[in-house]
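During the no-cost extension, the postdoctoral fellow (Dr. R.K.) reprocessed legacy sequence entries with the updated structure-token encoder. One reprocessed record is reproduced below for audit purposes.
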Amino acid sequence: MTYSNNTTILSVVKKIIRLILIISIISEMIFFPSWENFCGCIMTFICWYIFDHFFLLRAIILKYPFAFIMYTSMFFYRFLPLPATLLENKPITYGLQIPYMTFLFETLLFIVSSFAFRFSFSLNRKNNKLQKILLRIGFFKPLPSTVIWVLGCIGLLARLSSFAVGNVEYGDIGNKFTSGLIFLMYTPFCLFFPSLYTYQSQKLKNSKHNKALWAYFTIVTLLGIASNSRENMIIAIGTFILIGLLYQIKRNIHFSQISPAKILFMGIITYIGINILSDFSTAMLYNRSIRSDVNKKELLNRTLETYKNKELMNKLNQINQLKKAQPLLSYKYGWDETYVDNFMLNRYCNIRITDQTLYYALNTTDDNNRMKKNFIDNLISLLPTPILERLDIDLNKQDIRHSRGDLLYAIGTHSNIFPGFRVTSHVADGLMTFGLLYFPIQFIIFLCIFKLQNALVFYTRKKYIYSIFGLICFFTFFGLFRNANGCSGDTMYLLRGFWQSLILFGSLSYIIRKIHIKLHQSKALH
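Re-encoded structure tokens follow.
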């Protein structure tokens, strides 16, 4: 690839994705020629064509970054399986038992998702009613750095509190509220890129302030590792990277402005970082059995000791390789999520989950009543228990602690429900619950979510103002579309998850800002 002086980073990204697509399709057909794999290539090509030609545009990214990042995860779920499996010398159909059905339904759902994203916005600079309401109540008003630091500390304290409490049970209102504050600890990350949320371009105050930010970032990352959760381990890094990418696209840096040395350095850092995260993931899993018996400080120390013990890490990696060499289970013999080896890729491109859950969904004579009832029960459970009692609704929240995947698996295998936190795909969960009506239902759900996310940006004559709330939830938005609880999870997020976080952030930032202003005025009087 050759680049002119006017080549932007976004145009380079488009070329790289196109090159990966071409190489992957050719390689798949040379090394794994079959009609099933060809259909997988067709799915990948169709999803790429829609994404690249209609949505991977700077104007859309800048105006609708939060909805765009969720839509991007939908694209990656269908695009990454092809190159990811090839890197491990596997076909895209590795472990799949009904590949034609899987590729067909995933392509159809991506088309539905694309229509939902497109109908959620207009390309002219016009703010909707929700954006105007949020502006009126001060949601887009830039926060002083002191307020941002206080919000971050509240989130940090909430994280430490969660370490002391452990798993939060139903009915534990206090700790549930505290756990809902954890996302605030990413608020200071916005201070790295102040021009995104202020009306005027700003730079970091000084090197001392910069060092404090990097120290804070390190602490938050270490706490993620101490949680013994692989998602918590990468969320701080992911949030920082996504905010940084939006900043670079906004600046519209040309490729010629980046020196080859910087490109090489970033490539090396990325490669090293992925390997470090992979090894930390292995060390976490090794110490997972003791996480309920020791405090978080001890758990972090054990994890770091395991990571530094090269002999032990080599043995663990050898054991992992032996496990990967084991033959895959047929779905009729049990649950098996094995697809690609890298845990980060596996989280966002495990299309075998779609295949497996579709297999169970299509091989049952159940009339869908259990899935529908569970869907409704999950929505009702969003109401606090006192309200349920006041409305005389008899629902024991403990009875629906199993996941949607657990229920689908039990129905598909004609067995009892055993809470195993199994994930499910959107396609299988939707078809199992609503039949073919699922697709228009999912369209409406995605459309509403996209519209809410688009309201987190305000448009002025000169620039876009991104809400700090949207920026710190960037990685959350990226993870909304993944194998979890299907459209049930989407609906619960739409009705409660989004609004709960929005109200918490808005209320706390308003109160802290008022206190900050009064203290500042009091200091000025004295």
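Strands lie at 457-459, 464-466. The radius of gyration is 24 Å. The remaining legacy entries will be reprocessed before the final report is submitted.
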